[in-house]
Every structure is written in structure tokens, then in C-alpha cells.
């Protein structure tokens, strides 16, 4: 195989690689845009449920002084489901390691993050794939809530927190940590209306239903934020890879031109040498 043929073979392989990277970049960009469009509505819904929950506090008896939560803590991590996201999972696992205490129960959404947590933290008590798109987040969170409530009822869990990447458009995502249970009454009290709400349900069932919906809304928001951040990280990684492959492809094309010129020069020299030999003969 001549050098030109070898280089042309490499060019074909690099071209196919660039097409694959470009397709992955486009898919990440599409899913990022979907999550971006969903986030404002998810955030507004969380605020609306928080306001409704805060209004029910006016219907309840005066709360007792806050006590330290009894039972172990459940820490929920929202990690990446697929690869090519740089240090996305490593940074989140690193922060979780600094906050994880002996006896804490670890719940992990995202297959890649779950494998990393098993390696660097501790065996999770529950794992589940992260939804690939924002539309799939509610079903994932329903499964998570079933596991959390089972842990509260049977596993001695008294406190629930979630850690996730909060998406920042135009900037690097930041790792956020939220308390889910017990409720942050100080934060809710700041949202209380002046007058008690009109209601048909009894105060306690109403409060409990809104509390469950509030936790669901917070976790769904965390999942969609994580999906947006994951795809932003993947888009950036694929953008960089696409540029690198394109540069390498251009270098190979330049090498191919040089090899082609060298072959042409060699052929001309052979022709001239052959002609001179015939003339001399």
C-alpha cells in the first residue's frame, strides 16, 4: 500500500468519525433545547406548589419548635445517564463524598453516576436510569419517591436531601444541594398570604397532599436541571471533539496533497529517465 492510499484510508475513517461526533453534538443540542424550554414551566410549577403549601400553614395549629430530624439521612444524587460529559459525574461525586456521613442512605439517578458512586462512595440503596429527555423526568421521579417513602416508612430515614447540577445558560452549571424533608418552614412562612385560603378538604389532608406534590415538584425540577446540564456538558465535549477531528482531517488532506505531488514527481522523473534511456540507446 502506497503512502497516498494509506492516507486516503485514514481520511475516510476520520470523515466517518466526524459525522458520528457531529450527530452526537446535534442530539445533545436538541435535548438541551428541550430541557431549556421545559425549565421555566417546571420552576413556575414548583413556586406555585410552594405558595399553595405555605398558605395551608395558616390552617394548621401552631407548629412546635423545630427539632433535629430523627433517623438517618437519604441523599439523592442526580447524575448523568450516558458518557462523553467530561468531569460531570466526578465533580458531583466529589462534592457528595465531602457531605456524606456514615449511615447515610444513597439514592442515585443515572447509570454512569451510580457506577462511579459504587466505586468511590458506597453501594447505593437504590438506583435508576436518568431520563434521557425532560419529558421522561416525572416518571423517573415517581419511582424515586416510591423508594424514598418506603425508606421513610421502613428504613428509618428521617431527612432527605438532593444534590444536582443547576443549569446556567451561557455559563458553567453549579452544584446545588436542597433539603426536601423535613420541610423548611422558615422558607415557606415567608411565602404565606395574609388571609387563609378557601378550601374544601380538611386542613391536614390538604397539607399532606400539597407537601407530597411539593417534594415531587422539587425533585422533578432537579432532574430537568440535571438533564439540561448533562446535555450542555455533552454538547461542549462533542463541539471540542468535532473541532479536533476537523483539524486532524484537514492535516490528513494536506498530507494527501503532498503525497500526491510526490507521486506525480516520481512518475515524471521515471518518464524522463525512461525517455533519456531510449534516446541514448
TrEMBL record:
Its main location: membrane. The keyword Methyltransferase does not apply. GO terms for molecular function: proton-transporting ATP synthase activity, rotational mechanism. Keywords: ATP synthesis, CF(1), Coiled coil, Hydrogen ion transport, Ion transport, Membrane, Plasmid, Transport. InterPro entries: ATP_synth_F1_ATPase_gsu, ATP_synth_F1_gsu, ATP_synth_F1_gsu_CS. Produces ATP from ADP in the presence of a proton gradient across the membrane. The gamma chain is believed to be important in regulating ATPase activity and the flow of protons through the CF(0) complex. This is ATPase. It comes from Methylocystis rosea.
